[in-house]
Amino acid sequence: MLQTTGIHHITAFVNNAQENVDFYAGVLGLRLVKKTINFDAPNVYHLYFGNEHGSPGTIITFFPRDNSRTGTIGGGQVKTTVYAVPPGSLDFWMQRLNSLDLAYDTTERFGETYIQFKDPSGLQIELVERAEGAPSRWSFSGVPVDHAIKGFGGAVLGSNNPKQTMLVLEEILGLAKIGEDQGQVRYRSTGDIGNIIDVNIGQEERGTAGAGTVHHIAWRAKDFAEHEAWRSLVEEAGLRPTQIVDRQYFNAVYFREPGGILFEIATDPPGFARDEPEEEMGTHLMLPEWYEPQREVIEQLLPDIQVRALGGVQ
C-alpha cells in the first residue's frame, strides 16, 4: 500500500502581495523561496515560503490579488494551517505576537498547547511545539534558529462529509488513525513533518473560496514513479484525478475528495533550486520558459514587492 509521508505544501488565496510577504517573512520569519506567477493567470504572483531549502513539508504558497473577494472558511477546506516550532518556543512566539499587537488565543487538544492567530487576510494559523522534524536553519527578522518554524505540524480539515474524508485519508493516503478528542479525529502519516491531520467530526457549513481561504492541500510523493502509482490508485478509487501537470518545481495531480476538499499529490523532486541557485532563491522573478517572451509585460503588471524585516529594514 502506498503511504504519503505527509503534507508537501498548502496553497491559499490572499489579498495584497507586499502585506503577504511582510507577514510570512517579516513576522513568521519564513524564507521566500520562490517568486513566480500563477501559470493560469500571469498577472498574479505565486509566492512560496518555507525553510532555508524550500523542503517539502515546509512550503506554504499564495496567490495574492488586491481587492479580492473575501472567502469564508468552512466545509470542503483546510480550516487551519498548523506550524511546528521547537520545544520551549511558545513563550518566544507569544511575546513576539504581543510586541506586534497581533491578537492570539491559546487552546489545547490531544495533550498539546496551540497558539492560534490569523494572517492579514484571515487565514487561520496555529503554532505547536514538536520535538520531531529537522530544525530550520533560516533566521530572519528577529526570529532565531532555535525558535524558528520547522515547517508544517499539520492541518485541521473541515469536511462536507467527514466519514468519507477520513476514509480517503486512511485507505488512499495511508494515514493511521491515532486518537479522538473534542470532536476531532487525529491521523498521522509516516513522516516527521507535516504529519498530523485533525478532522472535525461534525459536518461543516460549506466554505466559499476567496481571500483568507486555502485553495488546496498537497501530499508528498517521493519520486516520479511513485507519483504515477498514486494517480493510478486515485483513479481506481473512482476519484477522477487530473492528468499529471508539470508545475516546474514538482509534478502535480489534483482530485476533490468526497468531503469537498481539493487534494493534490506532488512530487518531492525536482525542487526549487532547479532554475536558480539555492542561495538566490526568492530574489528573482522566475518564469516558465513559455512565459519568458512576455517577461517585460508581466513585470509591468505585477506590483513591486520586497522581502523586509520588521520595521521595513532590508
From TrEMBL:
Acetylation among keywords: no
CDD domains the record matches: PcpA_C_like
Pfam families in the record: Glyoxalase
Annotated source species: Paenibacillus rhizosphaerae
Keywords annotated in UniProt: Dioxygenase, Oxidoreductase
Domain VOC positions: 6-130, 151-268
InterPro entries: Extradiol_RC_dioxygenase, Glyas_Bleomycin-R_OHBP_Dase, Glyas_Fos-R_dOase_dom, VOC_core
UniProt feature coiled coil, ranges: none
UniProt-recorded Gene Ontology molecular function terms: dioxygenase activity
UniProt-recorded name of the protein: Ring-cleaving dioxygenase
